[in-house]
UniProtKB/TrEMBL annotation:
Name by which UniProt lists this protein: Apoptosis-antagonizing transcription factor C-terminal domain-containing protein
Annotated Pfam families: TRAUB (PF08164)
Superkingdom to which the source organism belongs: Eukaryota
A single cellular component GO annotation: nucleolus
Domain called Apoptosis-antagonizing transcription factor C-terminal: residue spans: 90-150
Organism this protein belongs to: Aegilops tauschii subsp. strangulata
Amino acid sequence: MQKVQTRITLFRNTEIDKWQRKTQVTTGAAALKGRLHAFNQNISDQVAGYMRDPSRMINRMYLRKSDVGVFGEGKDVEGDPELIDDSEFYHQLLKEFLESCDTGASESAFYALRKKQHKKRKLVDRRASKSRKIRYSVHEKIANFMAPVPMTVP
């Protein structure tokens, strides 16, 4: 059973790392600066790093950050095991990502992309304004209609 588990773990990590490289989120600027350690590492390395000492991360997630308490319970200093707040982790990732972005490069890329886009003009006949063309709408033919035939009345 242990052999199967190690083989599956090895396969899982290689596949996840392969797909992470294919769908890389960061630009070249973040990789050059090296500030985003989480983005520069493989996902399997990140998970292994967290799993080496998960107690620190878990204890920080259980801390109650709001002053609002649960009705009927006392204030718990060490945390609530039913409460998980991982916003601090995502705030740190977002902060590192925004610090690593090069604003000049992103603006120039935006303007270059904008130049490549073709402006679409509406398909409108520009010479039809000012009553230069007759405007009409075709209606359906009338069913069961016959033009009057002149009759002589005796």
